[in-house]
Amino acid sequence: MMSIVPILHRLPAQLLLPLMAVGALGCALGVEPGKTGEGDFPALQFLPVGSEVYGISLPRYKGAKPIYLIKASKLKVVSRKSVVIEKLAASLYGDGTDVTSIKSEGGKMDFSSNRLQTLGLTSIGDPRFRAQGDGVIYDTERKRGLMLGPVRCIIQAKPKEKTP
After folding, report:
1. Contact assessment for residue 100 and residue 122, using Cβ atoms and an 8 Å cutoff
2. Domain range holding 20?
3. Is 162 among the domain residues?
4. Cα–Cα distance between 6 and 84 in angstroms, integer?
5. 82 alpha-carbon distance from chain centroid
6. What is the pTM of this model?
7. In this structure, what CATH number is given to the domain that contains residue 69?
8. What are the φ/ψ torsions at residue 22 (nearest 5 degrees)?
9. Is 117 inside any structural domain?
């Protein structure tokens, strides 16, 4: 059987979904896909190390609830456990309806430690505050992060409730 790995080295994101469907069809026909281990990059079966994908979105769910959505203009698979991202825009979903956004020129995601680290000028938008700094280290499991400085932060004040 012929391997599709050589053509995957530089792949537009629009082709990833059809390839995943072909992979599922191959499984139904008894073709064993490449195995991914705990903490591996989830699409590693379809994107070998060294692959570059343009215009991609990486969603993560816990059951039916979204945890995060990372969008990138370019993603490069560096190892079985990490990717490098250019022009990053991430949406981090909280317990309620709040969504925190992170924008940066670049970063990396380590799937074994569930850490997103941005590199360079980074801005955070949240219903409670806005901040800008030199980078962010964010743990997607614990939903906690650290902004690297110098940091500029603007805290949003809630409007005072009027009593009748």
Report:
1. no
2. 5-155
3. no
4. 20
5. 11
6. 0.70
7. 2.60.450.10
8. -65, -40
9. yes
